[in-house]
Amino acid sequence: MIGDMHQLVVYDKLKLNLEAIVESPELIHDEKIMMGMMKTWVDELPPLKKYLHHEFEEKKTKYVNSPTDSNTKAVPLKMIREEVFHPKDADNLGCTSRLEELAKVAAQTWIRELLDPKKATFQFMSESESQYCWDRCTPELKKALQGKKAVNDLAESSFAEVTEQLRSFGCINIANAAGVSDMQCNNYLS
After folding, report:
1. How far apart are the first and last CA of the chain?
2. Burial of 15 by CB count in 10 Å (0-12 exposed, 13-18 middle, 19+ buried)?
3. Are residues 154 and 92 in the same domain?
4. Looking at residue 151, what is its pLDDT?
5. 15/107 same-domain check
6. In-domain check, residue 68
7. What is the pLDDT of residue 154?
8. How confident is residue 64, by pLDDT bands cut at 50, 70 and 90?
9. Four-residue CA torsion sign, 91, 96, 97, 99
10. What is the mean pLDDT of residues 57-80?
11. 105-133 pLDDT, tens digit each
12. pLDDT value for 100
């Protein structure tokens, strides 16, 4: 079930949380449970805690079609979270049972994907019994993996860099963002 399990790594904890939703789909409406699934790591990793606080409490975005002022800003994730767990919209209020059905199907699908031996995530699951799952990973390997990028795929890294440029600088042309990404990856300015 859902709870603080310091001995489990993220993928195993995620799987346990998803299994709890399959067993009790009504958990999808419980804000404390849904937003607290990764509390163990939020408490242990101050940068993650800072990031989540920024995303849900501080990060403001301009309204695209503000009826009153084009400079009106809001914290969109905070507003979305409020509507998800405390719906006021009539359509949202009327779809509780359907949401529970979809949550169960989504959780089952996610579990199936996590446990698919053809997927990259599988090697980190306890069920894989690979050298990378937490129970079998040696202290030396754990230390060697610290601080490494989670993705070693160069294309994926380039996409992430372009996304970061777009996110950081807003109205930047995608070709320019890609150019900055390539310059950084290839150390053109070093």
Report:
1. 50
2. buried
3. no
4. 55
5. yes
6. yes
7. 60
8. low
9. positive
10. 70
11. 999 999 999 999 999 889 889 999 988 88
12. 93
Query: What percent of the chain has a predicted confidence (pLDDT) above 90?
Result: 22
Q: Is 132 a domain residue?
A: no
User: What is the domain extent for residue 28?
Assistant: 10-114
Regarding whether 40 and 87 lie in a shared domain, the answer is yes
Q: Which strand (E) or helix (H) includes residue 74?
A: strand 73-74
Residues 17, 96, single domain; the answer is yes
Residue where a domain terminates, one of 114, 140, 174: 114
Give the burial class of 166: count Cβ atoms within 10 A of its Cβ; 0-12 exposed, 13-18 middle, 19 or more buried. Answer: middle
**Total count of residues recorded for the chain:** 190
> Token pair of 110, please?
């996610």
Backbone dihedral region for residue 170 (phi beyond 0: left; psi -120 to 50: alpha; all else: beta): left
Global pTM reads 0.65
Q: How many domains does the chain have?
A: 2
List the one residue out of 134, 185, 125, 131 whose CA is nearest residue 155: 185
Which residue has tokens 């409020």? 82
pLDDT at 138: 87
Q: What is the token pair recorded at 190? A: 């070093």
Nearest to 1 by CA among 33, 30, 31: 33
